[in-house]
Design a protein that fits this description.
single chain; alpha/beta; 7 helices; 26% helix; methyltransferase; methyltransferase activity; EC 2.1.-.-; Methyltransf_25; transferase
């Protein structure tokens, strides 16, 4: 996991937040917090890969007692600029093994972060760690994208996911290892270096929905719901992402 720790350094943490825009927009955060508040059902919640508090802070504002696990010291430091430890306690460590407590009603992973674990074994251990945190009957929620392998042209190993003024997102695939590297290309005169392009890369291991369900079963969960988004819209064969709710068995 050291490469992930190095990836989410101070520069990444300081540039991560985009208040009011993108994944920080009210239209994204509002439905997410609403669903998680309902699923917590008055009990405490723990966020794996809490980051800078994009979801945890508004969830705490909604009255949910929130704790977190985060690998990156820099992301935790950025979170601490916004909220004190006493309000949202965070354990620094790997979300596949670090323990933030037990007896939680809800554990959750938002915005594809389970894919930051680059092996199937680590992803399975993440489910097992979620089970350790939860009270019997507690829920584990995972938000994740659906691999877009149907978009790969024959003989090519990359897709253009986003193309807009000043930004390109290109994903390159290793279909044997189920690895994706996202190449974030930013360019334009607004950049501080006069417009030269900047490239950032983030590695992921993609997971099919059925594979995710099997990981959950191995950890003692049963699938309760799957939606295409936080608005609870139906999940179909055309959905590009999903929000899946798992419930921990009584045993």
């Amino acid at each position: 996991m050291s490469n992930q720790r190095e990836l989410w350094d101070r520069e990444a943490a300081q540039s991560y937040d985009t208040p009011g825009e993108g994944m920080f927009s009210p239209g994204v955060i509002g439905p997410t917090v609403e669903v998680l508040t309902q699923l917590a059902a008055g009990g405490p919640a723990v966020e794996f890969a809490i980051g800078t508090g994009r979801i945890a802070i508004p969830l705490a504002d909604a009255g949910v007692a929130v704790s977190g696990i985060e690998l990156s010291h820099a992301m935790i430091a950025r979170l601490r600029e916004k909220v004190e430890e006493g309000r949202i306690p965070v354990v620094q460590g790997d979300m596949a093994e670090a323990l933030a407590g037990t007896g939680f009603s809800l554990a959750f992973l938002a915005f594809n972060t389970i894919a930051n674990l680059l092996t199937q074994d680590d992803q399975v251990r993440c489910f097992q760690n979620a089970a350790r945190h939860l009270a019997p009957g507690g829920r584990f929620v995972v938000e994740l994208w659906v691999p877009q392998l149907r978009s790969l042209p024959p003989g090519h190993g990359a897709t253009v996911e986003i193309s807009e003024p000043g930004y390109l997102l290109i994903d390159t695939y290793d279909v044997v290892q189920q690895h994706v590297i996202s190449h974030h290309v930013r360019f334009g005169p607004e950049l501080s270096d006069g417009g030269a392009a900047r490239i950032g890369r983030t590695p992921h291991r993609y997971v099919w929905p059925a594979e995710l369900d099997l990981m959950a079963r191995l950890a003692g969960f049963v699938r309760e719901s799957r939606w295409a988004d936080w608005d609870r819209s139906p999940f179909t064969d055309q959905s590009r992402s999903h929000v899946t709710v798992y419930r921990l068995g009584a045993d």
